[in-house]
Amino acid sequence: MQEVPQENRIDEIGDDQDNETYNSILDSFNDAQIQFKNDFKLKKEFIKTLTEKKSKLLEIKKVMDNSIFPEHVLLNVGGMEYRVKKDLLTIPGSYFDLMFSGEVDIKPLPNNPHLYFIDRDGIEFRNVLEYLKNRSQDPFIDLNLMRELKFYNVEGFSLSTIMKDKKLDVIASWISKEKVSFKLIFKASENEFKASEFHRKCDYQGPTLILVRTKYEVFGIYVNDFWYRMGTDFGGSESFFIDRKMVKHQKILDVAEIEDKNSCSFLKLGFQISDRCNENWSSFYTKDGFKDTFRPIEYEVFTVKK
């Protein structure tokens, strides 16, 4: 709000009484503006002081709450009880970190003041603990485990930067009725989009899922056998293409050949990603008999473990 300038005051708009009334209103309006500014400034300072006090109290509360938990924590996760070392769960920014600091309102069960309840999958929590103990030993991540890791905010976990987890769940169900695990083995932007790096990291790795992002769409292809640089024959009847609408297009064939060692190419699957594909339009896929070229801005390759 801006104060009404003095030049807006007038001396003549009618008789003297009208002039006096008008100027009195302007004076009152200006006084109200000044009072509002002063009150607003005082309230801002008061809010700032309260915020600083709250932060200090929270820090004290964190120390107090953290000291409440013993060296081993008793958890009831979905009806299953676990005795876990506190050090294993002390992961900065995670659900457990917030729990220990008191920022997550988790209370002990009424009949057992030392047992804390978490409403999650109790069986899957065992896998979460195994992951925390041996996270560097098994790079394959089951999709159910991935969801739990995301809930507990362990490492801000996300498997793909191209496709959301729910869509990966759908693709996993197309691949197998059993549990499917994915492992990211190649990210184009981290390897200068070089086909040679693709082959170095992806050849002989078994079944793979490739996800592609262009400026306009996201799509992918599942190949149920290994890539090989110089070309080979193998069955590909379970391979399929995933279009941008998340529709599965089965690719039925007896032989799938990689005919171009300078690209990521399954020509008999109607699919090719060229070398340095982010700089050209040589990449293509075929769907329903039509060939379409594309230029990726990112693509990821995952090995698939059934």
From TrEMBL:
It comes from the Eukaryota. Residues 71-134 form the BTB domain. Residues 157-305 form the TLDc domain. One of its GO terms (biological process) is protein homooligomerization. InterPro entries: BACURD1-3 (IPR045068), BTB/POZ_dom (IPR000210), SKP1/BTB/POZ_sf (IPR011333), T1-type_BTB (IPR003131), TLDc_dom (IPR006571). This is BTB domain-containing protein. It comes from Polysphondylium violaceum.
